[in-house]
Amino acid sequence: MNTGAFDSFADLGVHGSRIKSGMTKMSARLETLADSERDQLPLWLPVGLGLGTASWFALPDARAWTAFLLLAAALALAPQALAPGTRWSRSVSIFCLAAILGCANIWWKAERSAAPVLSQPRAAEFDSRIESFQRLPARGLVRLLVKPAEDSGLPPRLRAGCFRISRRMRGCRRTIL
């Protein structure tokens, strides 16, 4: 069996040979386990994708997502450095790559479909067409979905979408709605 990085411990003397011996035994046990479960290993791919997707939802921001991606990349490379050519190292690496793919996929989809968000409430006057309205009597609101007109004076990236406006029902004129 190819032990890879553990070969360098042989020059360290007794202590190094114990490390090499222990790591080789652990690698042999993992290889036996991976060989006995080889038919079930592909079933871990969706679990890896799900782990990556769930981590994107669980982690708070882009810095944490980047840290997850870097950690998963390190965990994908470590088995290849420690025990190259073994079934267990390939399995762990592919699982970590699936987790990277899951996180990167959901992040890319979220960035691609992100609508412009106003950083704070603003007052503006513009011409628009009411696409739909919804009465919310329990909350005392009317919710309007309006689409700005082409000559509304808004910047193009804000003119492309729709706005959702909520207003108290008491102040709405019935002739408009």
Average residue pLDDT: 79
Helix content: 40-55%
Strand order of the largest sheet: 1-2-3
Order of helices and strands: HHHHEEHE
Give me the Rg, rounded: 28 Å
How many beta-strand elements? 3
Number of helices: 5
Explain what the structure shows:
With 177 residues, this protein is an alpha+beta fold. It has 2 domains: 4-113, no CATH class; 128-171, no CATH class. Helices cover 50% and strands 13% of the residues. The chain is built from 5 helices and 3 strands, in the order H-H-H-H-E-E-H-E. The chain has helices spanning 14-36, 45-58, 62-82, 87-113, 156-159, and strands spanning 128-136, 141-148, 163-168. A 3-stranded antiparallel beta sheet has the order 1-2-3, with no helix packed on it. A hairpin with a 4-residue loop joins strand 1 and strand 2 (141-148). Helix 2 (45-58) packs across helix 4 and helix 3 (62-82) packs antiparallel against helix 4. The longest helix has 27 residues, at 87-113. It is elongated.
